[in-house]
């Protein structure tokens, strides 16, 4: 390969990485946690009064009460069925407002068979998931921004591979630590990038489809299909039009009858959700979504049936989907790791954290590449990126830990979900501000220490605010609190270790660097070392 | 770099649509439509990256526009002649 080609792709890789790296760090860190969204949701609900398991008859009772109390909800109502992990049936109504936006309503049956309309204050898992696909930007805008970032991410992957290829055999899986920090960060970046490349390709691809899939299809609609695309691919993508309401009322089959019909059609189906359209109308339909026992990547099946007589209008099962639907659902299943059980989830967690490291190390590599080796004063651009990198990345991690703490500590408050979100943003923006107010090395170390302390406080809060200890829950068969606490302690230890490493480099590392205590106004008393230890001597390794 | 990148990312979109659209128009069955559409992302990224191989942004723009125009014209011709059943 020509050197000019390598140089061009190196430039492309550098600028795409810098342009997308910080948002991708947030997406990957929160995405790694979102792998366990189901477990996190359970962790978040240990501190609220538990609902008891409810049966289909109670689901029917809930449905009828909601339709009676809120007749407008009949247009589109979701019934989430009680399960062992999430006991208690829930009815959800996404009310369409005049401005086109939606507001969510939630209903449950209380023990006294009355309708509980209080929204669930537990939203930690949902919030971290939203952070994953918006990076904290306003909802739909953030989704589209992340979609565009996926395109930049895809180009960064290809260009990075092209740059790496000529030295692949020499540099594959080699990490040279030591005097040359640029070499170390480059090797670390390459090892993580190459090891997880197939996974990154899948993620860039599936994320782009999920975030900006509509925009990817739009040119085909205009240039190829003459506005006829959706009727062709819509059913394969699970978008099936419901029947138009007739205007005549008709009684619907009960929940248990509907479940019985679907299980007869799809043996082994475990229904989790019933989505009613125009409930109570003669043309009412219900879409039953549930898990199947299948060897496919995607275990989800759905059936659409007429709610008043049980006529089946559509069946989507992983074993008999079209090639296109199998391809699409396979990509989505790979993205959401809906296969492979806990082993796959832990692998995804590690790969997600490694992905976050990839973007963090890419920025460090850029800073190290532009280091002025013979001058104390470093380039403004490298100082700026060092501050921003520390502020955003550590701020995101500290913010997530703060959200955990707020959600646990304020479990009895109605405003718990709002306060939890507020705590994330406060810590996130305060971290960025702090990183720009303090010298780079000092600010980074302090942020890491705060991040470590916030993370270490998670098991402490669990011990303080839960009725039963983590070990007590584990003995009773509920491992989630104990595992979360152990992971939090390990993460806190990692943050303290990195803070210590940053401190060592500031004290003993090359003084001509943004990471040195000697540059950018760092005072000796801002570090933990005695003044005499902070010297301008070359690297001591 | 910015001009080149804009050419690479934006002009690769109609070129991708033309290439995949032509493939769909030439396939005899509708079963291939969705899998082909799902390939839009890798083809888009592939074209965008390949365009950096050309020495000048203007050459890359010319090539991508040519692919777009020729592909779209070929699709229109197939439709006009009734030689496609899928689009």
How would you describe this structure to a colleague?
The complex is a heterodimer of chains A (541) and B (87). Chain A is of the alpha+beta class. Chain A is built from 17 helices and 8 strands. Chain A has helices spanning 3-34, 37-45, 56-69, 124-134, 139-164, 168-171, 181-195, 197-223, 229-233, 255-265, 323-336, 341-369, 380-409, 416-437, 440-465, 470-475, 480-508; strands at 76-80, 90-96, 102-109, 115-116, 270-277, 285-291, 300-306, 312-316. In chain A, strands 4-3-2-1-5-6-7-8 form an 8-stranded antiparallel sheet, with helices on one face. In chain A, helix 2 packs antiparallel against helix 4, helix 5 (139-164) packs across helix 8 (197-223) and helix 8 (197-223) packs across helix 11 (323-336). Chain A is globular. The two termini of chain A are 37 Å apart. Residues 521-541 of chain A have low confidence and may be disordered. The longest helix of chain B has 25 residues, at 2-26. Chain B has 87 residues and is mostly helical. Chain B has 4 helices and no strands. In chain B, helix 1 packs across helix 3 and helix 1 (2-26) packs parallel to helix 4 (57-81). The mean pLDDT of chain B is 93. The chains are: A alpha+beta (541), B mainly alpha (87).
Roughly what is the average pLDDT of chain B, rounded to an integer? 93
Whole-Å distance between the termini of chain B?
37 Å
The overall strand count of chain B is: 0
Strand order of the largest sheet of chain A: 4-3-2-1-5-6-7-8
Give the overall average pLDDT of chain A: 89
Structural class of chain A: alpha+beta
How do the helices and strands follow one another from N- to C-terminus of chain A? HHHEEEEHHHHHHHEEEEHHHHHHH
Helix content of chain A: 55-70%
Distance between the termini of chain A: 37 Å
Shape of chain B: elongated
Structural class of chain B: mainly alpha
Largest sheet of chain B: none
Total number of helices of chain A: 17
Oligomer: heterodimer
Q: Classify the helix fraction of chain B into a percent range.
A: over 70%
Sum up the overall morphology of chain A in one term. globular
